[in-house]
Amino acid sequence: MKRDRVIFDLDGVLLDSETNLDWLDRALTRALVELDLPLTRENMEKLYPGGLQDFETAVKDLPFSPEKIWKVRDKHYLAEKLEMIDRGELRPFSDVTSLERLQDDYSLGVISNSPEVAVNRFIKAYNFEDLFESWVGRSSELNSLEEIKPDPALFQKLKGEVGDGKFWYVGDREVDKIFAENTDMEFLHLTRNGEGFESLDELVDYLLELAE
User: How many distinct structural domains can be found in the chain?
Assistant: First the structure.
């Protein structure tokens, strides 16, 4: 049984969901319309996913409870993301298939701050059930934001499914680095822009050298 495990972030690492964020703007626009709030850039930014752990603070000046705003926001976010995956407009990066070269030496998994429903849809829509051993994401409840990265909770959930071993975490953001530190995983920085690993192919080559 393989005990060396490589765990991947989803958005920006496996799923090309950030090159074009029109889908996200549509989702947040629909949320503001349903809440009858002004369609301003300021209000849009309050609902953006980058600072979800500060969501309640970000929306405190809006005329609804954080629970109501979150429920509407997450409903439209999830619906738009699932539709875009189903339509093939949010796709895996082309180099994700290179991860198959790791399967003899490593067990692969996914930990994402994206809703677990979206992670499931990505895995199944692109037939990755045999590539990844386990995958986890957040729930859709407001209190789940207390457990997203860099909090260790999602890692503990995945570890409970796959067991102990040496873990690497592949991410593209500073929060991923902090998450790795908080969970004693080795961090591998994939940026695709020269500041870290430039591709999954390059990262795979590195990991295969370690396994020799």
Answer: 2
**Distance between CA atoms of 194 and 55, rounded to whole angstroms?**
31
Query: What is the predicted pLDDT for the residue at 1?
Result: 56
pLDDT tens digit string along 53-63?
889 999 999 99
Task: To the nearest 10°, report the CA torsion of 182, 183, 184, 188.
Answer: -90
Q: Are 102 and 1 in contact (CB under 8 A)?
A: no
Give the side-chain half-sphere CA count within 13 A for 153.
Answer: 12
Could you tell me the residue range of the domain that residue 46 belongs to? 22-86
Residue after which a domain boundary falls, among 57, 86, 115: 86
Asked if 90 and 81 count as a contact pair (C-beta separation under 8 A), the reply is yes
pTM: 0.93
Q: What is the pLDDT of residue 167?
A: 97
Taking the C-alpha atoms of residue 161 and residue 164, their distance in angstroms, rounded to an integer, is 9
